[in-house]
Structure formats: structure tokens, C-alpha cells
Amino acid sequence: MRFVPIKEIWAQEIQMNHRVRERLVKSRTALCNEIRGLLIEFGIVIDPTISKLKKAIPDIISDAENDLSMISRDLFSRLFSELLILEKEVLHYETQIKLVSKENERAKLLEQIPGIGYLTATALIAAMGDPNNFKNGRHFSAWLGLVPRQNSSGGKSKLLGISKRGDKYLRKLMIHGSRSVLIHSSKVENKRSLWITEKKEKLGWNKTAVAIANKNARIAWAMLKTGSDYVAA
After folding, report:
1. HSE-up of residue 69 (Cα within 13 Å, Cβ side)
2. How far apart are CA 151 and CA 163, in angstroms?
3. What are the pLDDT digits (tens) for 138-157?
4. Which residues of 103-121 are buried (b: 16+ CB within 10 A; e: fewer)?
5. Rounded alpha-carbon distances, angstroms, from residue 76 to 86, 106, 114
6. By residue range, what is the domain housing residue 63?
7. I want to staple 203 with a disulfide (CB 3.0 to 4.6 A). Which of 6, 86, 135, 207 is the partner?
8. One domain for residues 153 and 74
9. Where is pLDDT greater, at 76 or 160?
10. What is the pTM of this model?
11. What is the pLDDT of residues 163-178, one digit of tens each?
């Protein structure tokens, strides 16, 4: 049984900022979907991206030729104001997390890894704590739920999908970062990019993203354990 050590104050503060930011991001997404859904009722379709939605709403409200009544315009105006408030709050917590990443040597160390930015780096150091809590990189990756589940019987081992155990938020950040690496891997020619191309052809897009996240988790553990810089393949 693995016991979780008591977190230090700085780690708790980082995780609090991440949790509040994540809640606000979910609220922002839900609000954007609500606005788009209500506008569709009037035959007005907007691109799902937040930037285009923010740009389109003021024009829709001021457009006198659409079918919106004064009540509807007031409603969308209030929803737009609510969206701007959420955007401001999300930016505030992202700024706080970015300041931590600039001041924390361990976070700056992890940001050298392709696919790990300031959000993932700060979340990693806060969740991991002391690297010595884990026997090796694979144990840390398993703790994040990035390794296959096994179904062994009669001396035969069958690998299933990833276990998805551990910190769901941190696992999501790791996989999102891996997708970014996967997109840009074709622009670089090195041992890592060749490995990614081979995995993509064999396993497909999503499984390759998880494989990259698994590898990045192991690299992150090793770097924090030894304090060494990232060495590109």
C-alpha cells in the first residue's frame, strides 16, 4: 500500500490555483455552449472557438436586421458580460501559475521537455512532491494511470487499455501536451520523431499521444530525481 505524504504549503497553493482555474475553464466552456445553443434557436450559428464567439456576440447584439427582440438582446448582453468576467478570472489564475513556474527551478527544468509547458510542469511538481516517493519512472507513470492494465491468467498476460488511475487532471494535461508534440513531430528529424512516427503508424493517433505522455512522465521523474537537464534525442 502506497501512503501519500503530507504536501508542503507551496504544493498545496499550486494545486489550489490549478483546481480553481480548471473549475472556471469548465464554467466558461459550459457558458459558451449555452450561448451557442440559444443563438441556434434564432438560426444564428457561430464557430465553437471562444475567440470567434467573443468577437461575434457584440455584432449580433447590435445587428438590427436579425430576429432578436430587446429581451433577447439584453439576455445575450448579460451572458457576454458573464463570459468576459470568467475570461478575466481564468487569466488571473493562469498568471499566478506562470509566476510560480518562473520562480521554481524544478518547474523550469521540466519545461525543457517537449509537450510540457508551465501548466503541466507546476502541476507535476505539486503532485509528485519528492521524486523518492516513487521507485522509478514507470512507477510514477503507473501512478498517473498512463500504463496498460493487465489481465493475467494461466501464465499468459494480456495488456488492456490504460488504467486511468491517479490524478485525472494531471493525466489530461500530459496527454494534451503530447498531442501538441504529435502535431509538430513531422517538422523535426531526430530519434524521438522517428519513434513517434513509427508509433503513429502502428497504434494510431490517440494511443501514440498516450505513449508520448507515458515517456514524458518517466523523463520528468528522472530529471527531478537527478536534477539534470533534458537531453534531446
Report:
1. 3
2. 12
3. 888 888 888 775 555 555 55
4. ebebbebbbebbbbbbbbb
5. 15, 44, 41
6. 1-103
7. 207
8. no
9. 76
10. 0.84
11. 567 778 999 999 999 9
